[in-house]
Amino acid sequence: MSDSTNYFETNKATWNKKVAVHAQSDMYNMEAFKAGKSSLMPYELKALGDVKGKSLLHLQCHFGQDTLSWSRMGAKCTAVDLSDEGIKLAKQLNEELGLDAEFVCCNVLDTSKHISETFDVVFTSYGTIGWLPDLKPWAHMISERLKPGGVFYIVEFHPILWMFDYNEDKPEMKYHYSQDEVIYDEYEGTYADQSSKMESKEYGWNHGLGDVVNALIEAGLQIEYLNEHDESPYDVFPDLVKSENGMYIMKNQLFPMIFEIMARKV
């Protein structure tokens, strides 16, 4: 078994455990979601606008709340995730809510081995690319799955945030901004429920903005914009303060918290 296969298997086992915890968490608020509340955040809603009638591929969908939120808006959705427990729950939610999304369990890098159709939109968000050792095959797959004229949109936590080790009492800057070496992390709890006793064992990689942009350009996509924002829609980092617009900011904001990229296949 190669190192990367072992990394992915370890991550898959952890994400399989996270599904049950996250499905019960306040953060994912399953009851409100089932009652009709969208799980999508303002950035992706503004970026992609009216998706009615569009085909949409969602990469690394967890248990499908965002996928199903796009589906409720009229998109024809297909989604992939590494976790079979995540995909199992996504399929249950899809059936329970009477929606028509399709869910495929696979490593995101193998998407084209499982899905042959092309899409108007490829979408991914918040905590996705850090699980991938190399963004070039990822970007190549995205290009393969886009129709000519189709768009890829990513909104993601800023790479500066991943330079810190959050398992210490005070976050310590420990990792390179764009680090080739794998980062192993072992801790109790999960971002959606810090009090959970579940043990997380995770392998991840840091990718700078240059890595992300250049991988997409090399795959033949045209970058329409790259934006950076001093806020997070999720309270998943230490000592954040909720602002009037419902977003979370740092007490001493010295760098952006999220970035978004829109790219088009020409």
Automatic annotation (TrEMBL):
GO terms for biological process: methylation. Its EC number is 2.1.1.-. Keywords: Methyltransferase, Transferase. It comes from Winogradskyella litorisediminis. Residues 58-154 form the Methyltransferase type domain. InterPro entries: Methyltransf_11, SAM-dependent_MTases_sf. Pfam families: Methyltransf_11. Gene3D superfamilies: Vaccinia Virus protein VP39 (3.40.50.150). One of its GO terms (molecular function) is methyltransferase activity. The lineage of its organism: Bacteria, Pseudomonadati, Bacteroidota, Flavobacteriia, Flavobacteriales. This is Class I SAM-dependent methyltransferase.
